[in-house]
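[Q] Does anyone have a clean structure-token version of this?
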Amino acid sequence: MLPWPRPQLFAMRLFCAPRNRRSLWCLRARPRRGERAAGLLAFGSVSLLSGFCWPALRADHRARMGRICFLPNNIPVPLCVCVCVCAMAFVSAELDARGWDRNTAGQLPLLYLLGKFKSLAKGKWLWRGITSLPQPLLPKKSLRIAARANTAFLRLLCQEVPCCFLAQSISEVSQWFHWLDTINARFISEVDCKDQFNNICPTDIESHLTAASKWLAKRRKWRMTDIEWSIHKDSKMLNRAGRAKATKFWYITHAQMSDTITFEMHCNNFIRAVGGLWCRHGCIPMGGSFSAQVADLHSLWQVYSNRHLLRRLGSLTVSEAGFPYWESPQGITALCQFRDNILIATTYPDTASHPIVSTVCNLLGEAWNLDVLCECMSGPGDPCKHHCHSASTTALGFDMIRGKTGKGLAYLHPSALSSTWSLKSAPPLLSPASAYPAYLPGIMTGALSNARPWATTWAGELLSLSAWLQIALLSGYALPQVTRAAHSAVTRGLSTSPNDHTATTRYLYTVRHLLPMPHCCHLTLCAAWLRRHAHWAGDSYSSWHLDPSLSPDGTTGFWCGDWEILHLHAAKVKPSNHDCPPWETMCV
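[A] Here you go.
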């Protein structure tokens, strides 16, 4: 039994928005007496959705939607059912024309809204539409094979394009960040491509896919008439072009993969939302089977097609690790893109005479035909205020810090925490009363294990652990419960770390009673604890130390050299009206 009364079926009527809102069609209920508030709420949701790039069914689809039907007993039947049936019939006809199998349990995707908390700082609330695909219309196996083939194609394309700074995973971004130590990059910042999915046309994706396929085949000197992809059933790293002579592979031609992408972009574009059926035109769905890959393809191929614009940054050089960078009289500039986030690292500061952030935003916006903005910019054409390009930045869920010597430090910074490590809004975790026993240990274990490629030093691991201790305590969990969960997470999540996890556990039990506290206090406490308890050799420290006479290969410890970076960053983020406790003189 539901705790609330079951809603009645309302008589549905068709609502057409003005032409200047892209001929939006939607369905809304006719409110009865006492239900006008619910009707206004539904209409407000419809009006909110109309601001996106999902204009619903056009006038030429009106004949397919049917009319309002009433049963003899005077119970109205929602028109939404008729519309969904017609949409399913339209998509099924497209599948039959291609001769493809269909998912018998397939449903039209559901559109839901996700708020973006970063927009609150600018005095507005931004909603992002995400498409949920619980049961796609194509078989899941076919979609999975085509998606993996598209990823393999994109990976080969990234290897062949010299000026490619696209990263296909978070681990590749972490490798780029640690590679910055070799070029002594001291400044880093992050810029965003605004509304990337909503402003990429599927027709452009088709042309990019065709042109990139021909270019890659010529570049690799493939002699086959049609490219065939071998997709391994177990390991994604074994996916390759050509037909593999093994039994654990699926095979798909490049033409089949292209047809699948075209179908998902153009034909399979019906979405259910707020009691109506919507049709997406002229954009890429967020959450689609190929959305992330085709957005990366658009970015990569547009950069290659407009590679002459990158000469504004200097002369191109590709490092031994495969990362490109540009040299100019001012210094070295390196770029890294993951989805719609672009990281900029330089050896020189951003000044009015050498505005590197504005230069990168302008040339990428011109190459992609999209808006690329930094935190200082309020809109297109607005110059950078030179505040965002500094020795530290927060992006992709991590704090990235560059030192004066060109070395780096990275640790977890969950999006639920502000710059002072207070909650931005409501607690991000389940309520302690409704959380099952393994919930908190599992969350912490996954977070620490996923942060391993970034937090390579002991200080990074300690600060990543402190961030999740802070979140758990601010979410209302009791200190003993948080301590047990963190102890389990350290033992399992950091089991592959070269640092001594028993010393990390000692840090946990030492600082747990001091939490929660501001971000600057976390940094000063970690620096003081390392100074007191770590093994030191000059400016380097280690969580363990071995006598050289007992080491067969001469290894005496896993030495880290980022303590000075940690100490200086703690003084930088400390507010002027706040004083941290003197941890150096306290028993920590």
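[Q] Thanks! Anything notable?
[A] The mean pLDDT is 79.
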